[in-house]
Amino acid sequence: MSLYEELIERKNDGEVLKVEDLSAEELTKLYIEEEKTDRILADLFDVKQSKITYRRRKLGITLRNEMLNEILLGKSEKAKEMNSKAKSQILNAENLNMISKAITHFAFRNGPVENMHAHPNNQLSEEDMKVLNKFMVNRLAYVFTLIIEERWLEFDHLVRHIDWMFGHGWDEAEPDDGGTRELIEMMIKDKKLK
Asked: Considering the entire predicted model, what is its pTM?
């Protein structure tokens, strides 16, 4: 039984359905997976269509976002194929220098350390920055060499050993795309306009 059929059954049994009680996951299921329009959902919940549309958009539940998720998260066969192709094109030894420098900028240089360097007190000199940048690029080059060459035993040892010795007491990691997804969305939108 679909979620929509379940809700219809509950409504027919006398339950008053409230759109506010609908979770983001349930609304996604109804709108994306079960392909129920805002009009159909408005009738189900006895509200104006605009209320469904507003709630759905506020939660980011749109066909455009779903298509982006499908592509970026590799849900469809075509997206898996595109993802695999991108992996084979980027993860090779020829790109090691580019990968290491780009990830150093993304994860290190374009963050708090840049503010320390650019601060009027100049807490980090140009020479300090050169040393730090070179250290980061070289270490990341090693990590990406392990990944590219699929040296998973060495990678596993490195990660577990370092975490056990130093990192396990730190705050939990919180993935931060640094605006990457937004940039990809803008690029896709720009390509569609051309």
From this structure: 0.59
